[in-house]
Write a structure and sequence with these properties.
The protein is an alpha+beta fold. The protein has one domain: Tubby Protein, Chain A, CATH 3.20.90.
């Protein structure tokens, strides 16, 4: 028997019809199951939607990053004070490892001399007679920081040698003569490190250093004089909570090389970097409360 070319084509078309009929009979169940599967997958992958607004009641602590920082390698083989190979700094506190002195000096430029209202106060932070570690820039001008007894807040953005943010220091606004309104500065790196708060004393200046969990770490005591009559050259002692040990010192003094007043912060080289960072922030708070006026009058 001889087959023509059309016959295989007919067989294939007939088989296709049978397959289409069987698939049409099973399609409702299959469609239902596939739709259910897709619904489950969509429910699993759908983002969480909150019906009510979230209220933040706690500040981020050590485990929560405040702001991202790129771990850029920093070549420090030629550093005089802390010679090391290059390292990747994840947070600003790592720059203070192996450092026992910090010198804080205000950057003087033409806008500082002519007192431009839009000028931005900057500080250079370096190891004495060695490398510069940070550049601190104040977000508010000095001319707007004190008006009618009102101490306005400011934010210091502390940058490292790569231009990355190493610290953020925030001074909260307060009234200088109102009971319960204390001068306070908070120190943040990749996380909240802690704060420094002023204590109420009849004579002299006193501060307490707190960690991120509001636990006191140490105290800072200044000269026994009124803050408005602070000496041009003054020394602040950092002591343990019981007063039995001196942990660090902060001195405001005249520097003959820079021909200007500087703040010199000194602590043991093995001091915890978090405590170093908090004392670093305390230096700016003390500079703001007592020595900005002295710096201004010394240049007149």
């Amino acid at each position: 028997m001889r087959y023509t070319e059309a016959e295989p084509t007919l067989e294939r078309s007939f088989a296709q019809e049978l397959n289409e009929m069987s698939s049409s009979e099973q399609s409702p169940a299959t469609a239902t199951s596939s739709t259910g599967t897709q619904t489950i997958e969509m429910q699993e992958n759908a983002p969480i939607v909150y019906s009510n607004s979230n209220i933040i009641t706690m500040q981020p602590t050590e485990g929560e990053l405040r702001f991202p920082r790129r771990p850029i390698p920093i070549i420090s083989t030629d550093w005089i004070s802390t010679p090391r190979a290059q390292f990747n700094a994840i947070s600003g506190t790592q720059f203070l490892a192996g450092v026992e002195q910090l010198e804080i000096q205000q950057v003087i430029d033409l806008s500082t001399i002519i007192r431009r209202p839009d000028r931005v106060t900057q500080y250079k932070v370096k190891v004495p007679r060695a490398e510069t570690l940070f550049l601190a820039t104040e977000s508010k001008s000095e001319t707007q920081s004190r008006m009618c007894g009102w101490y306005k807040g400011f934010v210091l953005n502390v940058l490292d040698q790569c231009g990355e943010t190493a610290f953020i220091m925030r001074k909260e606004p307060s009234w200088m003569h109102v009971v319960g309104s204390r001068q306070k500065i908070t120190v943040e790196s990749a996380y909240l490190i802690g704060s420094v708060e002023e204590n109420f004393t009849l004579m002299g200046s006193s501060f307490t250093v707190y960690d991120a969990f509001k636990e006191p770490l140490c105290n800072i005591y200044g000269p026994s004089v009124c803050g408005c009559c602070m000496f041009k050259e003054a020394q602040f002692q950092v002591t343990s909570l019981d007063g039995s040990r001196q942990l660090a010192s902060l001195i405001h003094q005249w520097d003959h090389l820079t021909v200007d007043y500087i703040l010199l912060l000194t602590f043991p080289i093995d001091t915890d970097v978090k405590l170093k960072s908090l004392l670093f922030g305390a230096s700016f708070l003390i500079e703001y409360l007592y020595f900005q006026r002295i710096r201004k009058t010394s240049r007149e």
